[in-house]
Specification:
- It is a single chain.
- The protein has about 350 residues and is of the alpha/beta class.
- The protein has 2 domains: about 1-175, Rossmann fold, CATH 3.40.50.2000; about 180-330, Rossmann fold (3-Layer(aba) Sandwich).
- About 40% of the residues lie in helices and about 15% in strands.
- It contains 13 helices and 12 strands.
- The strands form 3 sheets. A 5-stranded parallel β-sheet has the order 9-8-10-11-12, with helices on both faces. The chain has a 4-stranded parallel β-sheet with strand order 4-5-6-7.
- Helix 3 (about 80-85) links the parallel strand 4 (about 65-70) and strand 5.
- Helix 2 (about 50-65) runs parallel beside helix 3 and helix 10 (about 260-270) packs across helix 12 (about 315-330).
- The radius of gyration is 21 Å and the shape is globular.
- The relative contact order is 0.11.
Length: about 350
């Protein structure tokens, strides 16, 4: 955005007061506000966090922005920041990137996993939040979202889920990436490496991957599983790029609503075939049978067969990878997304 001539500043939070203040990140001014609290208060302080909001207001007054683009405020900056931003900006834009605007956590209810029904009832919320339940949370979120001039969702799947939970007037803008950062490297002599590009949790599909690997190892003993780290340690951006290149196939088998997993388009940009979940927006990037496969991750046998098919047929894997790279270049490149965003808020 800055390279297009816009003046861009970032306001975010950190956990420690010693980390707060102004810093430079690749030429961007970043203002960090310290905020931390026990998780049991999240359902309340994620709506209105007075400690942060006072400092946020001072910074908004100082910046006097034309547009405030709000992302990921559901923990520390709080949803009230939408209303607060409206007092100081000509336009306020909110981008939803997950289910947190209507769910207390990851969306993995039985009716969603069985029927893709994303509606959350008060009983669903109570079961999910338990003692942390705030009966007014979702009502207040919808109220504060009303102060946004534009609401974007990163996938059609998320737009539909928001609508099912009373959040309407949403436009879709898929995530974009700088394709030039990813080198598509084709080498038929690579080892048979399966890259699981997600945190090691049940929701991200770690357990179904384990079961699929039991089948795969019987048929292709040389197949290896590469993961992106542990629950507490992540691969950085450059390490992720190397992991994509080193892999034969990338799998994203989430068993929860995954709005639009960035790893899907990153892997495609690196020229790798991707096997992605049916839950959420992965299917909006993956062309089934062209750039990879869209699977029900609970169908372990079918997922394992799709993986083995790509490991065995290197020409098909390379063809899928090239088609994926071309799709990201044409549909999900960052330059087009920036232009789309600027044109949309200008017209709106």
């Amino acid at each position: 955005m800055k390279k297009t001539g816009q003046e861009v500043s970032v306001i975010t939070t950190c956990r420690r007061e010693s980390e707060a203040g102004e810093m430079d990140y690749n030429g961007l001014k970043v203002f960090r506000i310290a905020s931390d609290y026990p998780a049991r208060w999240r359902a309340y302080l994620s709506i209105y966090n007075p400690q942060v909001l006072r400092k946020l207001e001072r910074k908004l007054k100082e910046l006097n922005p034309d547009v405030v683009h709000i992302n990921n405020v559901h923990f520390y900056l709080s949803y009230y920041s939408i209303k607060l931003s409206k007092q100081y900006a000509k336009k306020v834009v909110f981008t939803a990137r997950d289910a947190m605007s209507f769910s207390f956590g990851k969306l993995e209810t039985e009716k969603y996993l069985k029927n893709l029904d994303a509606r959350i009832t008060w009983l669903d919320s109570l079961k999910q939040a338990r003692r942390r339940w705030n009966p007014f949370r979702n009502i207040l979120i919808r109220h504060y979202l009303g102060y946004a001039d534009k609401i974007f969702a990163v996938s059609n799947a998320l737009k539909e889920a928001l609508a099912q939970n009373g959040i309407n007037g949403v436009e879709v803008m898929h995530t974009g990436i700088d394709v030039s950062e990813y080198r598509a490297f084709y080498d038929k002599q690579r080892k048979k490496i399966i890259f699981f590009a997600g945190r090691l949790s049940d929701a991200k599909g770690a357990r179904v991957v384990e079961k699929a690997m039991q089948i795969i190892s019987q048929e292709i003993p040389e197949a290896e599983l590469l993961t992106a780290g542990t629950n507490s340690q992540w691969l950085n951006r450059e390490e992720m790029k190397k992991a994509y290149v080193a892999s034969s196939v990338v799998i994203v088998p989430s068993i929860c609503f995954d709005a639009f997993p960035r790893t899907v388009i990153e892997a495609m940009a690196a020229g790798r075939p991707v096997i992605g979940t049916r839950y959420g927006g992965a299917s909006e990037a993956i062309l089934d049978g062209v750039t990879g496969y869209v699977v029900n991750p609970f169908d372990i046998k079918t997922m394992a067969e799709k993986i083995m098919g790509l490991l065995r047929d290197e020409e098909m894997a390379e063809r899928f990878g090239r088609a994926g790279r071309e799709r990201v270049e044409s549909k999900f490149n960052i330059d087009d997304k920036i232009a789309e965003f600027l044109n949309t808020i200008k017209d709106g």
